[in-house]
Write a structure and sequence with these properties.
Layout (H helix, E strand, L loop, with lengths): L13 E10 L6 H7 E2 L4 E10 L5 E4 L3 E2 L4 H7 L11 E3 L13 E5 L6 E5 L2 E3 L12 H24 L3 H4 L9 H30 L1
């Protein structure tokens, strides 16, 4: 069954999208090894897309795919934007360029003028990419820094997942076991996150 995120699941209305890769053994036949060879990592990998909110909660993962799959096609294949609630803000890195152009427009009726207008169903943002032979403006640099300050939270979640040795080293099990193992570890990371957030909230209440 397809998972559709609800607005209530996004603690701050944001969905942070990123992908993580893990090294695997070199497949035996040429066709399979080419599909698993990641040019970015320069090794054979499995890739998993992860969606979190802006409060360090892992909300969804995609089934693992061979590492040669690029981030944007993986996002498209999983229909990630379609699974986000109306009004959400989807944030991703430079590997997801073109995401904003895919946002569906919804017809909205203006009460005062009674005119029907189209508005984006949600907002999708990726960093500004430096044009070939050009440079980013100060404003674009500032936007990229602000976006990075929010996106770092999905990076935190990916880092916490890799505290577990089975995700930090070469994956030696059958590939069809990878996604269920990743799902279990996401649940454990979320439980750990809930504990430290509760402890921090209690400490803040005590200090007041």
């Amino acid at each position: 069954a397809e998972t559709v995120l609800l607005a209530a699941q996004l603690a701050d209305g944001r969905a942070l999208i990123d992908a993580t890769e893990q090294r695997v053994s070199r497949p035996g036949d040429d066709a399979t090894q080419r599909r698993h060879y990641s040019g970015k990592k320069r090794q054979h990998t499995l890739k998993t897309q992860v969606v979190t909110d802006g409060d360090h909660h892992i909300l969804a993962i995609g089934a693992a795919v061979p590492g040669a799959t690029h981030d944007k096609p993986l996002c498209d294949g999983l229909r990630t934007l379609e699974r986000l609630p109306d009004g959400a803000e989807a944030l991703a890195d430079k590997g997801y360029q073109g995401l904003a152009a895919q946002v569906e427009a919804l017809p909205v009726c203006d009460v005062a003028s009674r005119e029907e207008r189209a508005r984006p169903r949600l907002t999708a943002r990726t960093p500004h990419k430096k044009p070939r032979g050009g440079a980013l403006t100060d404003e674009q640099h500032a936007c990229n820094r602000a976006l990075g300050a929010i996106r770092i939270r999905v990076e935190h979640c990916l880092g916490w997942l890799k505290h577990w040795a089975i995700l930090a080293t070469r994956f030696r099990c059958a590939h069809d076991r990878y996604t269920p193992i990743m799902a279990v570890l996401c649940g454990l990371v979320n439980a750990q996150t809930a504990r430290w957030q509760a402890a921090r909230a209690a400490q803040g209440a005590y200090s007041e």
